[in-house]
Amino acid sequence: MRSAAGKTLAIVWKDITSEMRTKEIATSLIAFALLVIVVVSFTLEPGENTSPIAAGILWVAFTFAGVLGLSRSFATEKDKGCLQGLMLCPVDRSILYLGKMLSIVVFMIVVEIIIIPIFIVLLDQSGFPPQLAVIALLATIGFAAVGTLFSAMAVNTRAREVMMPLLFLPVASPVIIAAIKSTALVLSGGSWGDIASWLGVMAAFDAIFLAVSPLVFEFVIEE
Amino acid sequence: MQALKQNTRSVNGLLGLTFALMIAAQFLIFVYVPTERTMGVVQRIFYFHVPLAWNAFLAFAIVFVCSILYLRSRDMKWDRLARSSAEIGLLFTTLVLITGTIWDKPAWGVWWTWDPRLTATLILWFIYLAYLFVSAYATEESQGARYAAVIGIIGFLDVPIVALAIVLWQTQHPSPLIFEGGLTGSMLLTLMVSIVAFTLLYLSLLILRNSLRRDTDEIKKLKQYMDERN
User: Which one, of A211, A218, A172, lies nearest residue A60 by Cα?
Assistant: First the structure.
């Protein structure tokens, strides 16, 4: 018998293996995030100073890529009939939730690792502030914490593509605000102290929804 | 039958009381209370705005409690109550946003500003819009009820964090003051009567919407029964 952590990792590993074979999610998310950056940059004049809105552009790209990736997470399970299989697994529903959540975090981080350097080049930022790594990690966990729940919900409704952003964007808005504001601060040379309260908002969001979501997840996927 | 009659009578009593208090509140708002010195006549919208906002919040708190009760008991009566309350809460939030915008233009000179309260109210509106969408777009009745309950819980827990994030954002740009001085006695009285009137209105609407929903469910059940028999 595996431990709870072992079971969770087994689900994460299943998602990673299937992703390694198809490379469906990561590649499409990276391309999509890049396109968002390009499209939003159309508002800029050539040679304009981009620093005030660079953080906004980055997080708009990550938020929309996140919505897309999150809805894929359960859509693939559902379409191929794997959701039934997952639910038949002799594990607690909260472990199912944690597993899916962690695999989303892993995918999102891969996307972010690739996108951030390109973003720095395209929007002419001076470098990679180390604080950005912590901001991205906290925000990604927050996105995945509520996103996993909503993804499992949206996939079972009619008009699932529309449902996901409708559910996700307002609820995740504190994380989006905190990520944009703190990224803007560190891109303009802010220190850890400047962004401490923003990191606090994201940490509080992550803690609350990581505690509550596993409890309500069983009501979402029961048949 | 007797119970039903009794029930109808008490609902009618509540409706009558709501109507009387609403009329009294209108009198206080438009005739009795003096015009505010700095803002002028537009300030009277305050006596609609605040009671609506308070009741919208009350409505969402009731959605939260009923959602938990539904998930625990699986009794459809809690689901009906939660959804009815969410509809009225969304209606009241819409009115809060509209009255706020009308008030903003003369008071602050703009229709909309990304002030903490405005922004938080707008996000609240979107959360409960999603709530109603999900329950409407679910593929079956019980699934819609479960999803709605989950959002009723998550959404309500989200409200304080949304408020925290937005307040933190706005501390960088101080927001304009609503009042120069405090509320005088007559203003406070008007506000209180208006709050009670709107709370009764909320309760009346909730009871009516809920019983309409109960009847809809009842008819659906009967129809299903008839279909099975034929």
Answer: A172
Where along chain A do its domains lie?
Answer: 4-43+50-221
Which residues of chain A does B169 touch, with a Cβ-Cβ cutoff of 8 Å? 177, 181
- Looking at residues B91-113, what average pLDDT do you find? 86
Asked if A73 and A63 count as a contact pair (C-beta separation under 8 A), the reply is: no
Preferred mutation among B153, B164, B173 to probe A, highest tally of A CBs within 10 A: B164
| Mutation site for B-interface testing, chosen from A135, A173, A212, A221 by largest number of B Cβ within 10 Å | A173
Q: Which of B59, B80, B221 is nearest to B145 (CA)?
A: B80
Q: Is the dihedral of CA A124, A130, A133, A135 positive or negative?
A: negative
Chain A residues close to B146, C-beta within 8 Å: 219-220, 222
How far is the C-alpha of A208 from the C-alpha of A144, rounded, in Å?
13
Q: Which is more confident, A42 or A138?
A: A138
pTM for the whole structure: 0.87
Residue of A157, A164, A181 best to disrupt the B interface, most CBs of B under 10 A: A157
Angle (nearest 5°) at CA B118 between B116 and B124: 100
A150 in Cβ contact with A70 (< 8 Å): yes
Average pLDDT over residues A80-93: 80
Residue contact A201–B71, C-beta within 8 A = no
pLDDT band at B3 (very low <50, low <70, confident <90, very high): low
Q: Flag if B164 and A174 touch (Cβ within 8 Å).
A: yes
Position of tokens 């996993």? Answer: A148
Domain range summary for chain B, segments of one domain joined by +: 40-176+185-223
Taking CB atoms and an 8 Å cutoff, what residues of chain B touch A169?
126
Which residues does B contribute to its contact with A (CB < 8 Å)?
71, 123, 126-127, 129-130, 133-134, 137-139, 143, 146-147, 149-151, 153-155, 157-158, 161-162, 164-166, 168-169
pLDDT in tens, A115-151: 999 998 888 888 788 889 999 999 999 999 999 999 9
Q: Output the DSSP codes for B21-51.
A: HHHHHHHIIIIISPPBTTTBGGGGGHHHHHH
Angle in degrees, 0-180, between the axes of helices A160-171 and B116-137, rounded to the nearest 10: 150
Nearest to A137 by CA among A203, A93, A191: A203
Judge contact between A123 and A41, C-beta under 8 A: yes
| Structure confidence by residue, pLDDT tens digits, A51-68 | 778 899 999 999 999 999
DSSP assignment letter at B177: P
Is B138 in a helix, a strand, or coil? strand
